[in-house]
Design a protein that fits this description.
The chain has about 170 residues and is mainly alpha-helical. The chain has seven helices and three strands, in the order ααβααββααα. Keywords: DNA-binding, Transcription, Transcription regulation.
Length: about 170
């Protein structure tokens, strides 16, 4: 049986809140990106290349679900402006591995910082929480909710990708 909200408006309200939350979540980095002449596609590429150094073009295409043409345009901008470098794979010379430069790492951190601040503030602002409370339980709950929004057949791949980052850190 499919889960149902007690009132249809509850579901619609939740969807609406997701739209508004996403709008504001991306607005902070959008302002920074605009100063550099970049957009959200640049942010997404920079985020994943920063988090997963050595990511292949094929892996990035799979993560972002965009065309090779779209990725090439964005990558060209980031490479030309010195934020990302592309290297040939050592075991497979056909592979192109992506890495952030020092400038790219700093830029990715600047963009992440404003989003992390917003998420942390939202977790702290939950009813019954204080600014000094451990955010562990709230963070785990938020991660569980967001993972549940991902298509069931995609969750294992997302977990594997994120575990790869955890091991590298």
């Amino acid at each position: 049986m499919e889960p149902r909200f007690p009132d249809r408006n509850d579901g619609d309200d939740l969807i609406e809140l997701l739209f508004f939350a996403y709008r504001d979540f991306v607005a902070d980095p959008d302002r920074i990106l605009a100063e550099y002449g970049f957009g959200r596609a640049h942010h997404r590429v920079l985020h994943f290349v920063d988090r997963y150094p050595g990511l292949t073009i094929a892996e990035l295409l799979d993560i972002l679900r965009i065309t090779k043409q779209s990725l090439n345009r964005v990558l060209k901008d980031l490479i030309e402006q010195g934020y990302i470098v592309q290297r040939t794979g050592t075991s497979d010379r056909r592979q192109r591995l992506l890495f952030c430069t020092e400038a790219g790492i700093r830029f990715a951190e600047e963009l992440s910082r404003v989003q992390i601040r917003r998420v942390a503030r939202a977790l702290v602002d939950q009813p019954g929480r204080g600014a000094n409370d451990d955010l562990g339980a709230a963070l785990a709950s938020a991660q569980s909710f967001l993972l549940a929004l991902i298509e069931p057949e995609e969750r294992a791949a997302v977990r594997r990708l994120m575990a790869r980052r955890t091991k590298a850190a």
